[in-house]
Amino acid sequence: MLADTLLAVMWLGLTCYALFGGADFGAGLWDLLAGRAGPGRPRRSLIEHTIGPVWEANHVWLIFVIVLLWSGFSPVFAAVLSTLYIPLTLAALGIIARGAAFAFRKASTGLWQQRLFGGCFALSSVLTPFFLGTVAGGVASGRVPPGLAAGNVLTGWLNPTSALGGVLAVLTCAHLAAVYLCADAAREGDARLVAWFRHRALASGLLAGAVALAGIAVLRADAPELFHGLTHRALPLVVLSPCAGLAGLAVLHRHPAVARVLAALAVALILWAWGAAQYPAMLVPDVTVADAAAQPSVLTACLVSLAVGALLLVPSLWWLYAVFQRGTGPAGPGGERVREETGGRP
Questions:
Q1: Cα(339)–Cα(336) distance, rounded to whole angstroms?
Q2: Are strands 281-283 and 287-288 parallel, antiparallel or unpaired?
Q3: Residues of 29-59 as b/e, b for ≥16 C-beta within 10 angstroms?
Q4: Would you say residue 320 has pLDDT above 90?
Q5: Quick one: which of 163, 168, 126 has its CA closest to 141?
Q6: Which of 81, 92, 258, 297 has the fewest CB atoms lying closer than 10 Å?
Q7: Distance (Å, rounded) from C-alpha 275 to C-alpha 8?
Q8: Quick check: pTM over 0.85?
């Protein structure tokens, strides 16, 4: 019971990282595709305004998941990090490069410097979720056996399921970011930005759905145990996820804030579908939650620490997001365009 509770909390943290950190990564992709300096400036301004205050806070969730895995399920932690250290190292380097480039671009005054750091920021924003997705694919397809570096360090993440996981991670991040930014642009009152991000939200959502549909054949051939779990125990969650995603696309034009909730729900459902499909195995096929769990005293200490920490962390994060989600009106991103179109009226 203690181990299952800690696993559920860890999975909740993973979900938060996918929803918040994932949107951060996706925003980097749209920054890359925002266009030339002139027309792309208001789009990049909105992206910077949206993720600037919170991008570091979003990685708290990743640290949270890693620490819980290390503390509560150390054999799984050792197996995953020793077998899949190549994509994990590349993802860590991507996070570092992304943050540094984002900060340096903001401080740069020359156009060539802004382009250089902007390109690094965007490229890292695409590669990092891809490598994290390959890690998920390696674990889900049973390519991480128990023990230190017991699995193949190359085929553990260079395989069809990992490739599918990497591509879906990038597309999902792009879709989340486009939907979130569409809602942010609507709050700022910039119709052109709303339309630009809405079109990309529709395209990325449909593309992600098409890749996921094609991925059924990949999982059936390459990860049969995961495929069986997704089509049996986790089937209700698998069905609900695209329903939520399509509903989000349907209401995106008139209710972007509602679409944001539905897009997040679609991603959360598919993550929990993976967890339900694989449970109780943590390392497919033989290492279960009970096998990998730490002693009850350790699990109890972890859960008590989490309860105490949540009293401080959750309200702080809620306040941070709430403050920076408030609209800035005509003076915010794209505000100059609003003033031009209204003749200077507020």
A1: 5
A2: antiparallel
A3: bbbbebeeeeebebbbbbbbbbbeebbebbe
A4: no
A5: 163
A6: 297
A7: 9
A8: yes
Find residue 281's DSSP bridge partners.
288
Tokens of 233: 């125990």
DSSP code of 190?
-
Phi, psi (degrees; rounded to nearest 5) at 158: -100, 80
Here the tokens at position 322 are 């709430």
Concatenate the DSSP letters of all residues of 249-312 into one string. Answer: HHHTTT-HHHHHHHHHHHHHHHHHHHHHHHTTEEETTTEEHHHH---HHHHHHHHHHHHHHHHH
Report residue 118 as tokens.
Answer: 């902007």
In 3D space, the residue among 14, 337, 333, 318 whose CA is nearest the CA of residue 181 turns out to be 333
Packing angle, helices 235-251 and 191-222, rounded to 10: 160
Q: What is the number of other CB atoms lying within 10 angstroms of the CB of residue 27? A: 27
Buried b or exposed e, range 81-95, using 16+ CB within 10 angstroms = bbbbbbbbebbeebb
